[in-house]
Structure of Acyltransferase:
Amino acid sequence: MRASLIQIAVDEGEPVNSRRARVSSLVREVAARERPDLVVLPELWTTGAFAYEAFAAEAEPLEGPTYEAMAKAASDAGVWLHAGSIPERDPKGPLYNTSLVFSPTGEPAAAYRKIHRFGFDKGEAVLMGAGSELVTVRTPGATLGLATCYDLRFPELFRGLVDAGAEMFVVPAGWPARRREHWTLLARARAVEDQVYVLACGTGGTHAGVDQAGHSVVVDPWGEVLAEAGDGEEVLTVDLDPARVAATREQFPALKDRVLGSPAPRR
Ligand SMILES: O=C(O)CCC(=O)C(=O)O
């Protein structure tokens, strides 16, 4: 199984419509050039994760312009597409930070509303509602477990995804440069403790005065970093062997020694 993470530079000088068109083309180009099975985009790449004032202005219904563009990009490219997240406007509720996944025919495969909102008493934490459901996606290559950015700090969410059968965590983010060390450390920690692949796709650029960390990273079930991006726009393509998840759990069966919470994970 091959995955390509597209680390997008999210700078506010680029209008949302232009970025949407540019990212759609990038998905097609990367798929044609690198031949991945799965393409991953970052969190809130239309607005930027820190452009709080843009959330309401640019919020879309679930099946809005980004959904349409990404469904088409997935089917044109013939890939599973984790299209990162959008500010979703629920007609009957608040805004949500919602990740979208499409199959290679452009069918919707999953929508995940970010559970842990970032900002403490401001920003996303007050402007958006919290999701409440764990989401996994079965693909022919592996079962994906979905999480978004700040979720990375909450290991119990990932244990829940493991119990639901996840073999690969896909984590779009808009992580700030100031806490870059946390980003890489937490991505590796989630891989080691849950014995899964972690595909963590962040943004580059600067928006709302916040420099983005970039440094998208792919970690294997042993915690080794397979690929890591720099600060700017970049594509990371990595070959993954989903059988290594079961093999790692067999060789080092720490998950079987769980005392608290659920017993050993389903596969
Ligand atoms: O946890 C962090 O340090 C960053 C989280 C974040 O930027 C987000 O969830 O948007």
Observations:
- DSSP finds seven helices and 14 strands in the chain.
- The longest strand covers residues 80-89.
- Residues 47 and 152 are 21 Å apart (CA to CA).
- The mean pLDDT is 96.
